[in-house]
Amino acid sequence: MTTPFIAKALASTALLISLGTAQAAVIFKDAQLQALQEGGKYAELEQLAQARLKTNAADAEASAALTLALTFADAADPKRLEAGARQAKLCTDQHPMVAVCHLATAQNLSMQMLGMGMARAMRSVGSLKDVWIRTLELEPSSFTARVQLARLLLTVPGIMGGSVSKARELEAAVRSSQPDTARIIRVFIAAEAKNWGEMESELLAIKAGKDAALQDEVREATMLLALNYLKDGKDLAKARGLYEGLQREQPNKAGGFYGMGRVHAAQGQTDEAIRSLERARILSGAEDYPIDHRLGDAYLAKGDKAQAKAAYERFLANKRANPANAEDARKSLAKLG
Q1: What is the pLDDT of residue 238?
Q2: Do residues 206 and 180 touch, judged by C-beta distance below 8 A?
Q3: pLDDT at position 170, please?
Q4: What keywords is this UniProt entry annotated with (predicted)?
Q5: Which domain holds residue 102?
Q6: Would residue 230 count as lying in a domain?
Q7: Which among 33, 112, 249, 325 could disulfide-bond with 290, CB atoms 3.0 to 4.6 Å apart, if both were Cys?
Q8: Quick check: is 300 in a domain?
Q9: What is the pLDDT of residues 278-302, one digit of tens each?
């Protein structure tokens, strides 16, 4: 019974910190650290953090920055993730009252959970929740901690600490002081209730502007809503509109182009699907979506078996490929011989 819930929980934590997404919301007081982290320049962030720690081993921000650099520079490398976990523990042990250390710990744990077996992931949900709670206690204004905690509470079952009412409390606490934070939480509350009309209304009212953290959450929510319309061809026009909005507002992100590729594929527009998916492959956040799987399907529909095979093989080489997509890709690849 719990397996679907855990799978859903892990899908939720994928939002938190893919390259160039939720980790961009970590707010460093040091502008240089923040700029490198927002830009996904993890090699440079690691070098700077290590240099600062050599000068001052008690530099909490540098310690948290090193945690993030180790976590995200190559999230598919378990040794790097383990090193990030060790650094996270060092950060929280040395600076138990500094929120950014706990936030970095939550991000590292979230990435570890995506690669865990089901049983271990189940045992880790409570730990993740506790770290987000501690982060929020230390920094009540933290957008990332509040939104990620709310999403986790909405996702996991009550037996594992989930609670819609607690998520609503998190929203109500900042309704006046942080209206956009409250609104994006309401978006996900509506999504959990499958109240798609309310979700869309709340989502369209958000003006993310240049706020990278809010942009990330808006993109996640838009992709979720559009997928609902895309499923079984329920409302391709609405899905298209949402993806087109993402392309306009976030032209350097892969999400809108990936989604549009799926719409084109559903409409039998194979060449357009391939163009959109190929564009998505080279944009920021491409690793968050099964682009090569969909490309393989599109090339196969076009009759280009060589390109289809190459795309499927690229997808299956990804250690973090979604198991369901990977199974489909293997079947398609096997048929190609």
Answers
A1: 95
A2: yes
A3: 97
A4: Signal
A5: 1-139
A6: no
A7: 325
A8: yes
A9: 999 999 889 889 999 999 999 999 9
Side chain identity, residue 147: V
Overall number of domains in the chain:
2
Query: Residue with structure tokens 């993310």?
Result: 208
| Domain end among 139, 154, 189 | 139
CATH number at residue 88: 1.25.40
Smallest CA-to-CA distance from 149 within 247, 238, 139, 296 is with: 139
Exposed e or buried b per residue across 200-233, where buried means at least 16 C-beta atoms within 10 angstroms of its C-beta: bebbeebebeebbbbbbbbbbbbbbbbebbbeee
Asked if residues 19 and 285 have their Cβ atoms less than 8 Å apart, the reply is yes
- Of 105, 120, 139, the residue at which a domain comes to its end is 139
Query: Which amino acid appears at position 218 of this protein?
Result: V
List the structure tokens of 154. 């909405």
**Cα 232 to Cα 222: distance, rounded to the nearest angstrom:** 18
Does any domain span residue 233?
Answer: no
**Structure tokens that stand for 233 in this block:** 């061809």
Residues paired with 253 in a beta bridge: 284
Number of continuous H segments (helices) and E segments (strands) in the chain: 18, 0
Please indicate, yes or no, if residue 123 is contained in any of the structural domains: yes
Q: In a 10 Å sphere around its CB, with 0-12 CB exposed, 13-18 middle and 19+ buried, how is residue 302 labelled?
A: middle
Predicted model pTM? 0.85
Q: Which amino acid is at 67?
A: T
Helix (H) or strand (E) segment spanning residue 310: helix 305-316
CB 103 within 8 A of CB 64: yes
